[in-house]
Amino acid sequence: MERSREYQTNRGRKKRKTLSSRSSSNHPTTDRLKRRSRSSSEERNHKRERPSEKPPSIGKTIVKSVFNGLYYLVVITIVASATLFALNRDTSKSYFGYRFFTVLTDSMVPKKDSLPGGFRSGDMIVVQSMDGRDAKEGDIVTFLVGDSQDKFLTHRVVKTMKELNGEEGDFVITRGDANNTDDPPFSAKKIVGKKIFMIPNVGFIAEFVRENIWICLAFILGLLGFLLVLRYYFFSDGSTKQPSTRY
């Protein structure tokens, strides 16, 4: 009797152990955790095996810097050309007290004994608005020619007068640095400003842009697009993301 009871007890214990092991092996949470731990370990191993990216070479860095410089140069050229075109389009307008004129003649080309400040045809001069009565000898002034309201001349003041042919007032006499004779005297009221700055050869560029605006615009936009294409194909990061493999 006692042996049969012990046998039945041991048999019941073995049966319970078998059931518990089956239930634990068939539990979905346990299987999920095992799969996650296996996939994470495989991903870590895959990352370790992936080769590290090499830094760009010195030559590629230099070429990239050159192309970036050309790209920004084109952008600056577009902005500068548009600005010069807008400023030089109507010389009768004043922008914040300044006017921009393209020099058309060589009457102000300096001689050996000339005072500083001369300029040549094709240059651009910046003229600051002033009251003609404040002009003094040696100043380079821009003034209206005759009775015209849109023709200007820029010469150096050689003499100021308070009377002309019995008429009292403010009068000036000018002369171009390259000329040998003085200009006829005129009223100081015709003076629109004093030359304060000169940009060499920019006037020719402004005139060309003004006369060929569409050609210049097409050329600049085409060059900008070409540089953008080169920059995209040759100097992009090139780092394409590899698709992650899940196990």
TrEMBL record:
GO cellular component terms, semicolon-separated: membrane
Gene Ontology MF term list: serine-type endopeptidase activity; signal peptidase activity
Compositionally skewed regions (Basic and acidic residues) per UniProt: 39-53
SUPFAM superfamilies, A to Z: LexA/Signal peptidase
Segments traversing the membrane: 69-87, 213-234
Chain segments carrying region Disordered: 1-59
UniProt keyword terms in alphabetical order: Hydrolase, Membrane, Transmembrane, Transmembrane helix
GO biological process: signal peptide processing
Superkingdom of origin: Bacteria
The UniProt record lists the keyword Magnesium: no
UniProt EC number: 3.4.21.89
InterPro entries reported for this sequence: LexA/Signal_pep-like_sf, Peptidase_S26, Peptidase_S26B
Keyword Membrane annotated: yes
Protein location: Membrane
PANTHER family noted in UniProt: SIGNAL PEPTIDASE COMPLEX CATALYTIC SUBUNIT SEC11 (PTHR10806)
Protein's name according to its UniProt entry: Signal peptidase I
